Amino acid sequence: MQGKFVKNLTLLLVLNLLIKPFWILGIDRSVQNTVGAEEYGFYFAVLNFSFLFNILLDFGITNFNNKNIAQNNHLLTKYLSNLLVLKLLLFVVYLIFTFTSALFIQYSAEQIRLLYFLAINQFLLSLILYLRSNLGGLHLFRTDSIISVLDRSLMIIICAVLLWGNVVREFKIEYYIYAQTAGYVLTALITFTLVLQRTQRKLLRFHWNYPFLLAIIRKSFPFAILVLLMTFYNRIDSVMLERLLPDGARFSGIYASAYRLLDATNMIAYLFAVLLLPIFARMIKQKDNIEHLMKLAFTLIITPAIIIANGAFFYSEQIMELLYPMHPGETMWDFEMRIHESSMVFGILMTCFLAISTTYIFGTLLTANGSLWHLNSIALSGMLLNIALNFILIPRFQATGSAFASLMTQMLVAVFQIIVVKHLFRIKTNYFLLERLLLFTIATIIINLLLTLSPLFWIYNLIIMGVLCLGMALGTRLISLRHIYQLFKYA
């Protein structure tokens, strides 16, 4: 079983690292460069708004189903016929909350139209995740891994044809949304067919079992609240930028260009958490000492995070200029101002990666421990702080203020999670590790400062910095191949 787990995890990692970064940095970035920062920012704000009540589409059903189908394969037909009805009902609830809120904040007719299709996309994505939970519960891990990237693969093909195939005279942001809808619909149909083949019937009779469904919702409620609060403080920045500023769509686009790379790097940290959650859960159940694994995982994730955050901060302007050339109809002055503003936002947001990486370790540990009250309290504090800081900073500092609000929020959440973990698991502060990480951070900053004096092209400096810092991390044994092997050994 251990070998099977590692093989399928490796397949999942490889497929996601091949497809999803290309989607973010290839397709998504090209769309913004094609339509311009303002039009993309208009879309990005509405997209993030569609995420705010996303948890209402699932309410913990996916996690519940995965666990129970894994333990009771014979219940697949019963659960599928009941839970699909519940998913449709939750979709109606999601639409009510989302469009009521959109009208409350006075969204325009154009924004409502975009939101309609984005809401459908959110439902389709939630449906795919639920259907995939059946594949995971049946231990069809290889099939599930392929399905996990099928939607993005289909979207890449459709968008590539639209962007570079001379099929349309002018690419519009609506085409991007429709391409996503097509990818989700095809993936949902394929996944549903695969799941249906494993049921006892070829045709399902949908049922409404009120006590059964109510029990699921009650059990999932604390987790749903946690996801809702976390979604708000992670996604509301661009929504508030678009609402609070006269030219908010432009600043939302600037924020999106910087956030895109943070989103790409977060994928690696997220997959790290996917591995750790079942390991932590099993160790806590067996009352094993989790301190060594926690330290090991934290060191493995925070060390490259320090290197990435420093590199992004020192070369933020060059990276933004490389990724986002002049948009159609943009003057040189507008281009330089956009790059300057987006590089400032990018430098701040990538510093958030340090805090986010930390929460992927300590937050995952608290989730595995079932400490949802603590997590919800921290997430509520983070949401309130983020909204308050955005109200204060956005009118004065625009996108840079929103990025700083995000940094402060992520840092607060990370610190409080560490404090709670120390208290619950009675873990002593490892001052020796903290001193080594501090010295490593200082050394990384010094290396970057020295390389900025080099006459070499900045990309060469960035590569040299990465190699030197990685070599220093290996030489000081902050990370090692043995540590990585130990992590997989725990699985």
Question: Structurally, how many domains make up the residues?
Answer: 2
Low-confidence stretches: 1-5
Structural shape: globular
Order of helices and strands: HHHHHHHHHHHHHHHH
Relative helix content: over 70%
Amino-to-carboxy terminus distance: 10 Å
Strand-pairing-aware structural class: mainly alpha
Mean pLDDT: 84
**What is the beta-strand fraction?**
under 5%
Quaternary status of these chains?
Answer: single chain
List how many beta strands DSSP finds: 0
Characterize the largest beta sheet: strand count, sense, and whether it forms a barrel. none
- List the total number of helices: 16
> Radius of gyration from the CA trace?
23 Å
Describe the structure.
The protein has helices at residues 2-35, 37-51, 61-71, 76-104, 109-137, 141-164, 173-196, 210-244, 248-285, 291-314, 316-323, 332-368, 372-425, 431-451, 458-475, 481-490. It has two domains: 36-208, no CATH class; 220-491, no CATH class. Helix content is 84%, strand content 0%. The protein is mostly helical. The N and C termini lie close together (10 Å).
